[in-house]
Every structure is written in C-alpha cells, then in structure tokens.
C-alpha cells in the first residue's frame, strides 16, 4: 500500500494558500451545484493533483458536498486523482450523510486501482467508520468493517482500532464497542491499542468491573508491555474514581512486578482524588510509586500532597516536598507556602510558624489575610507578642487585605499582655489604614485603658474613630 493511500483525510493542518485553489474555492463556494462544472470550465485555470487535494481539504468543500463532487469530477478530466484526494472525497460525502454516493466513490476507487483495491486503504474505511458513528449508525459501521475484504483489504488490528475509536467517540457507547470487539476478536489479530481503546471507553463510563475484565484479557492476549501506558492509566484511573483504591494499588503492584507503570495521567488523577478525599494513607502509597515509576510530579500534584500532609500534621514530609520541588523543575508559589504555614498554625507549632514566616519573607511569598490573623492569634496565645507584631507589620507593609481580623487579634493579644502603649500606636495605624474595628474590640480597649488609668489615650482613639 502506498504512503499516499494511507494518508488520513483529516490532513496535515494549514498549508500556504495557492492562487489556483483559491480561485476554484471561490467558484465552489458561490455557484449552485448544477453550474459548478460549467463555471470551472470557463475560468481558464487548469487543475493539478496537488491543487485538487488542497481544494478538497477546504472547509468550503466540507460544507458544500455536492459542489465538491462536481469539482472532483471536473478535475478528473485533466488529472489522475491521488488516493488522498479520493479519501478526502469519501470523507466529505460521509460527513454530509451522503452514504450511497460515498460507496459509489469507494467502488470507483477500487476500479481505479485495477480492481485489487489499490486506492482503497484502511484510511478510507476509517473515514467511513467515523462518518457512520457520528450519525449513530453503529450497525452500518460494523457492516462496513465486514466488507473490507471485498476491496482487497484484510481486516487487521489497525482497522479494528479505527472502528472501535469511531464508536467510542460517541457518549455511552462502550458496550457497542465491546460487542464489535467480541464479534471480531477470533478472526482479527489484536494489539495493545485495541485494549487501550476499550479500557478508555469503560473509564469514561466508570465501569470498574468491565475495565478489569478487559484488562485481564489484554494480559492474556498481548502480555505486559512497558509502552502500553494508556491502558494502565485507564484501568487504574477507573478503579480510583470508583473508590477502589486498594484494588488499584494491587494492580499497580502487579504492573510493577512485570516492569510496567502507568503514566502521568493516572498519578495526577489518583493524587487529586486521594487528596480531595483526605485519604492520607493511599495518597502516600501512590506518591511513593510516583518516584519509582520515574514520573515527574507536576505543580498541582505537589500542592495537593503538601496540603494533605499539612492537614494531617506531617509537616516534615511537606517541607521535604517543598525542598524537592525545584529538582523536578517545579516551583512553589504563595498557595504552597500558605498551605504549610496554615499547617503549622493549625497544629499549634508556633516556633516553626515564626521561622517559616521568615523563610516566606526571604522568598518574597506573602501570607494570606486569614493566615496572618491566625498567626497573630497563635503567637499571642503562645506568649510571643513580638512575633504577633511582626506579622502585623507584614500586613501593613504589604497592604494585605482584608486586615480587620488581623487587627482584632493583634489588639486582643496586646491587651492581654497589658501593652497599652503599643495598642495606642497600632490603633492609630489601623485608623489611618481605614481598618474597621468592631464594637467589641473598642469596648475591650476602653475597659483596659480605664482600668490602667489611661482614659486620655482611649479618648484620643475614640475621637479619631468618630472623625472617620
């Protein structure tokens, strides 16, 4: 079979505009179908095989199938169409639902090739399968597969895979694809791609039992293949989405024993699902497999795992991952740093939180407003007002908003330590920043200042609040 015969009718993408092709397309796009050939004959431009291909690839021909047929017929008087041009015509007719003319074109291709199917290829039938399945005609697609032999083609794995892929593009058609597979598997040699297509179809439908059945048959028929990552990805992703983490890990261990691993797709999905469920044990087990599979974790995987570790209190592991990220070409951002800071605060590790805030400042990463308020509260409760004030200075310097919660926590902490001079100073600062102080905060200040015989300082704050 020639390379041209196997060329897909989908084409290779955009090509440089050809003046001849543009002239033909102008006629095809504007003239009624019955007048196309006459208009082309009088335009004075001679087609070439290459120009004919370019014209037939155009969206204009796809949207005006009858005009495309007339162009094809007219051009055939001057040039011998390539197998690719014939495939394009078959594709145009199939997409337009003109199935009888499509088969007429295929029969003509067969004759053009000397009756041995020289111009008809697997690519031709792949187009037929796609056109039928796009219109829900799955039985017709199956029938087309069964008549390939009449056109000099022996149905093989490539042809079967094209059929299964076409069926599976439609939603909820995994069962139809499985039936086609069952009907043909005894006569067609199968390959790894055949099973990968079916596994992906069952993954889309979330059917873990069918996926396991297909996977078992795949291992028996084609064996273990380290390059068959799509199949491994699909099976394992189906299992974890179905909540069968233990089963997925069992399969993963079996793959590992046989020198096979899934790819990024599974590990990304598995980490995402495990972390969203808060399943720390399975998330860690999967993470260990990531490095063993030599998969490079991406940013979202790192952030998800760091967040989970911080949530359960394994902050040393989270810090280890933070240090590891640059070696895998991944760089932490504010979300990453704030997840770790939040973990320190949640688990009341004040000393570590203070140290980590300094590291954040050094790396130009700002704490969130909520973390600032929580850190000030923690430092105040742990008898470290200086650290609380440092956090407030960060809020002021970097204009971290909203600042109301941080302001409330700072004043509450300073009042508890009877540091009223600093309360006055920072209250002035808050008023300048137009931070809203709650009524309860104001009342607490009043009581503290009156008790300390510093009513004048409170009155100063009260006057400023009234003038706002």
TrEMBL record:
Entry keyword annotation includes Transmembrane helix: no
InterPro entries: Mito_RNA_Proc_CCM1, PPR_rpt, TPR-like_helical_dom_sf
Keyword set, alphabetical order: Repeat, Transit peptide
PPR repeats: 121-155, 191-226, 228-262, 298-332, 333-367
GO molecular function, one term: mRNA binding
Cellular component, GO annotation: mitochondrion
Native species: Panicum virgatum (Blackwell switchgrass)
Any one biological process term the GO annotation gives: RNA processing
Protein name: Pentatricopeptide repeat-containing protein
